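Appendix B, example 12.
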Amino acid sequence: MAGFLGDVASILMTPFDFAVSAALLAWHEIFALALDGSSGWAWALAIVGMTVTIRVLMMPLYLRQMHVRREMRQLDPQIRALQETYGHDPDLLMKEQMKLLRAAGIKPFLSFLPLVLLGVLLLALFRIIDASSKYAPADGSFRRGFVTEAEALSLSQAKILDARIADSFLGPSHAATEVLAVALTVVMCLTHVIAQRQEAAQIPPDAALPGPTEQKQQFLLYALLVVLVAFGLVLPVGALIFWATSKVWTVGQQRMLRDYPGSS
């Protein structure tokens, strides 16, 4: 059963493997024009370029997310009233809240779609790096997305600041890998907190006290700090570069869009 589920998951992830590997290899070819293609810096910068490309392409989803959050924030008074009326019955409260959202034409799952998609793409990059690190040269039949044997071997051995991109903090690694993994995790956590404070600063003065919607979002988003630290221990350095770059991009994106209609 586990093997069957694994096969299904692999099939579902295949399109994302191709998308991520296409962007990764394209940027690697660009940086290989100025750097040694087998160097860790060429691969690390390729991951950064791939991440920026993904975030630019996902911009419409983030704009839609901003509109959904604004619309949900406007419903906070009605949600408070429902909590006062049905707070004793969580199931009924949930049903009434969903009825309110449907009546307003709001699809709350859209608020989390960018995060889910980003997580899937991170998983695709992890699959590529993990498969490359475990691959032993054979008959040249290796393929993960567009990554072939030659790229897999290069990626698996690439080092940045003496840390292998394919190694993780808890894996069989050197002190340099542990230091870099910790540094990237700290960057992810700091930029996450900054992003949440920037988002809170966009709430209008007349909504200074967060409503139910905002309270739930803040809880979920700050709980992500625990997830960031946990994944910082187990993900390879290459995946952490992706995530840290994405979090830095989020901070810059919020500053750029703070005056965009619907951002508050």
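The chain has a mean pLDDT of 83. Residues 2-256 form one domain.
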